[in-house]
Records
---
Amino acid sequence: MIPARTSTVVAGVSIVTAGSMAANIASYLLHLPAGRVLGPQGYGVFASLLAAQLVLAVPALALQTVVARDRVRGRSVAVSRRLGHLYAVVVAGLAVVATPVVAALLHTDVVTTAAAVVTAPFLVLLATEQGLLQGDSRFGALGGVLAASGLAKVVPAVTALVLGGGVGPALVAGAVGTAVMALAARIVVDRAEQTDEFDRPAAAGTWRDVLAASQVQLVIVALSSVDLLLARRVLDPEAAGVYALGAVAAKAAFWLPQSVGVVLYPRMADPRRSASAVRTALLVLLGVGSVVVVGAAIVGPIVPLVMGADYAPVQYLLWLFAAQGALLAVVQCGLLAAVARGDTRSALAAWTVLLVEAVLVLTIVDSATELVVVAAACAAVASVVVSTSALGRVRVLGSVDDRIRGVGP
């Protein structure tokens, strides 16, 4: 008979995974009407700004982890929200500073770029509430909020596109949806009966932990987005739009198996089971990735039928995009293992690969095919280096733990 606690954890993980997948699927579906309505050139701008928006969401991803951890340790809702509000103000300031820089990098106008980055502080507020739900183990509510957040961003954006609003209005509509969802998530948190509204000081390493988690999240996001962000600088607008559509397959292969890390992360943090958990996660990711690559190769010829003849070139490259995303999922797993053991130095290898990829793209790439080949090759190198480091370190830690307990030689 399965213990009640184990059953509850499994159910919670399943709900959170379902909610996360629903949000990701909604985000992917946004690309279909955008590609058809905007055409390759307009869609290239739209996809590039969405990628930039993802980079600006890094503080939100790190903050959710910190809020959840502090909530478990007794930090009150009010204090956690003050931290979230402070981060939102900081991120809003960064968004203002980043707008002209992003516009210059992506060759987009400032107003349209501002429409994309305005979402960033709302994502921080939403992440605060999600962290509170996670820390209180309210996984059912968290799964619902994740799914609803995806819809709240996508539905208004699609509506704006269908009504002929263009890139800027669609991005603003998505920002409004995210802001509304942040308020709704706050209401969900407040409706819970809290009996532990006490507050204890956070651990001394809180800010260091946030910075460490942020740089890991940043390199993961950057590796998954650098090719798309630079595509508009090295390709003509039509080719950049075609590349942006192919990159959707990479994003799908990258994000869809993220539940593997969610499920196995607690074991990664346990020195006695860390090596086994990392090996299992890597094997599962490689298996899932292989299936996704084969599937992309099969459905590739359908792309022109669904999206139009302008996107015909991507049908022959779709499997390579999927391979890039699957390899980056392996990189993410290795870095997740590093966060679990509290040693994120292996992220340096990922940063090095990122720098090399950017240099190669800006110096030797002249076509969409060359760009995806470089991106996939760099993802392969990063996956080998990071996963090897993760396995090596957890093996050493496991051996030390065995000796301490008197198990090993």
---
Amino acid sequence: MSDHISASVADGVGHVTLDRPQALNALSYEMIRELAAIFELWRTDSEVGVVVLDGAGERGFCAGGDIRELYTYASNDDHAEAREFFRAEYRLDAMIARYPKPVVALMDGITMGGGIGLAGHASIRIVTERSRIAMPETRIGFTPDVGGSWLLAKAPGELGVHLALNSRTMDAADAMHAGFADSFVPSERLPHVIQALAERADPGSPAEIVMLFDETPGPSALALARDWVDACYSAPTVAEIIERLRAFAEGRSTATTGGAASSSFPQHPLDPGATAYAAAAADELETLSPTALTVTLESVRRARTLRSLEDALEQEFRLVSWFIEQHDLREGIRAQVIDKDRNPRWNPSTLAAVDPGLAARVLADERFDPVWPA
């Protein structure tokens, strides 16, 4: 057992904990291999009837993959090892999604990126008042992966596109509305949930037991923003999304084509909070990697047409295999994590300079062995 994963079996419950709290339980390659071995072992263990997955410490379940480790791979041109990391991670995510026993994921605190890969595909996904859920990849010149595009594609309307492009952080109510979580349980009651799962009596299923602790988290800001988000983020390109956000924020119509407005904003008095939110979203998009935004928009929209999580993971693998060789990923990690100057220098620096055919070309790239060989 590694120093960063702890696992135990008692009273029919397999309890596995990400135990790297000083790094917000960020996933290293070693941790991914360890988790895969545990889940494989427990698959046929008659002593394990349900699996509980959580993170050590009070700050978060898992902040994502180990970005510094990824930066080392990318900076040292160790791209083959990076691809093995992603293959192993994606296989683990799919294993959890298809696991023959209930997996209860406790997304208490920060749960982002690779943390979504583990918890977002579990059969029972619990959030708390401390949950902060996001796929924040565009902030580092990257794209949502670990099956994130699959979840984002299934979010209501265009909310998934908004969440992906803006790397927007969700609270518990937002996560449930967007389809990233199933139940809201106050953090102080999580130990009682685990105890109840251990003491469960047939015919009570784990899902029914969790429902005993389920509460209503309150209104979702995402749900309230749905009308104007759909109107703005349904635009065909990122540049046009930004233009629609600006138009909505300023209370004007967007350009017309053939006499019809290219977007349909809600026909009611503008909410100052909504217009400020839209203006901030537009401002934010103009600071992020044009390449990452362009590819991410196409990734989420294509994921809507895919048949399974595994298909989405294969699509994401083609994207990340390309991104780890690109300037913007290294530069984004440098600016956000290594030097922390928050001043990335993207190349190209504008949306207009991005090749319009780039996303389609990258998505069609099959140079590397897939996650699941034929």
